[in-house]
Specification:
Length: 79
């Protein structure tokens, strides 16, 4: 079992939600990456579901995107 409990499919779904909320906020991936202290390429790997996402990471992204962290884990924007 993964340490954070998220499966590959969940990572992809969460990454998709991060992407959608970022677009809704009119932000560039670079802006979010800088807020997290990451390179843009590293951050976009999370959005594509290619990197393991932790609850701590979700909370940091949620702060930057001003969205409830639970929304990133459960809902698609617009639902």
């Amino acid at each position: 079992m993964e340490e954070n409990g998220f499966t590959v499919l969940e990572n992809k779904a969460i990454g998709r939600n991060m992407y959608m909320y970022r677009k809704l906020r009119g932000m560039k991936a670079l802006e979010v990456a800088e807020g997290l202290g990451l390179r843009e390429a590293s951050y976009t790997r999370y959005e594509r579901g290619e990197a393991a996402i932790t609850v701590d990471f979700i909370q940091k992204v949620a702060e930057i995107l001003t969205v409830d962290p639970v929304m990133l884990m459960t809902q698609h924007p617009g639902n």
